[in-house]
Design brief:
Length: 322
């Protein structure tokens, strides 16, 4: 009798758990990767780059399902309510588990109990940018002008509690500047007004803003990493003008809580192997994304630390989702 048939028979007799038997056969059908943002955005692009290699290593197709809305909450709720059988995964971002618990009065999921962390996948470079017709040539220029003219400079974000909003709150907290926050419902509308010159400044994702800076349509003043990034080595770090400034926009991989540990381990191993592929790493670099693989326990600790870091900042700003 083959090993698989033998284990299936034991499971049918109740002599081994269903998770053990499932681990022998899984996956037998396509796996759903839920993304909480619209197609074409930075998170979606990273998900679609990673999915083929991850699926190849797991021996099954992985398809991306976009569930945009409520700062990632719709996607997170879909995953939280899914069967914990390894066939639903979430491409996780900071919102649902580290930011939204503070800015939403109620969530359709429990961020601490409803997800099983699998791996931190990568970080995406954020940058501070201004229209080319604005006078500021450096972060220092912008900060000095904002201090001299409180409430005169506008900063856009892709929404209340979005990483771009949190990045602005951190800049204000460390510098004491008073600027006008203009939140949008998504990155598309925000970029439309920004490129039209109706907004003075923004902190957003490198995949969107860096090419615009290279083409001369906007001016990049700084990167949000603690030190200069190898992805854009000629651009100063914001921290050079604002000591202590660092905003890391990250992407991880999670599953519904109670997903069998054997499946979590297999998916994690496949994710690490996928991120080690030189061709994929090159494609991620083109999207200003740096692979930063962490295991399930390390990723869980990362989420906890991020939540602890941003909660006081959001509460002090009285940030609430609309």
């Amino acid at each position: 009798m083959q090993r698989r048939s033998f284990l299936t028979g034991l499971a049918g007799l109740g002599l081994i758990g269903p998770a053990a038997a499932q681990g022998e056969t899984w996956p037998t059908r396509p796996i759903r990767l839920v993304v909480g943002f619209a197609a074409g955005g930075a998170t979606d692009i990273v998900g679609r780059l990673i999915a083929p290699g991850l699926g190849e290593r797991l021996g099954q197709t992985i398809y991306v399902e976009n569930r945009a809305g409520a700062g990632g909450n719709l996607a997170a709720a879909s995953v939280a309510q899914a069967d914990p059988d390894g066939y639903t995964l979430m491409l996780a971002t900071p919102g649902p588990e580290t930011i939204n618990p503070t800015i939403y009065d109620r969530l359709p999921f429990d961020p601490q109990k409803d997800f099983a962390p699998i791996a931190l996948l990568c970080s995406i470079l954020d940058v501070l940018a201004v229209p080319v017709d604005r006078p500021w040539k450096s972060v220092e220029d912008l900060i000095d002008d904002a201090r001299a003219r409180p409430g005169a400079i506008t900063f856009s974000s892709s929404g209340i509690g979005s990483p771009s909003h949190v990045a602005l709150l951190l800049l204000q907290a460390l510098t004491g500047i008073n600027v006008v926050h203009v939140p949008y419902r998504g990155g598309g509308p925000m970029m439309g007004d920004f490129l039209a010159g109706r907004i003075d400044a923004t902190i957003g994702t490198g995949p969107v803003l860096l090419p615009l800076g290279e083409s001369g349509r906007i001016r990049i003043l700084g990167v949000a990493t603690a030190k200069r990034s190898p992805l854009a080595p000629t651009i100063p770090a914001i921290s050079e003008a604002v000591p202590g400034y660092e905003m890391v926009n990250w992407i991880g991989l999670s599953a519904p809580a109670r997903t069998p540990p054997a499946l979590i381990a297999r998916i994690h191993q496949a994710a690490v192997a996928t991120l080690a592929d030189p061709e994929l790493r090159s494609k991620l670099t083109q999207q200003a994304a740096v692979p930063t693989p962490l295991g399930p326990e390390e990723y869980k600790a990362h989420i906890k630390a991020e939540h602890a870091r941003w909660t006081p900042l959001l509460k002090a700003a009285k940030a609430k989702a609309e």
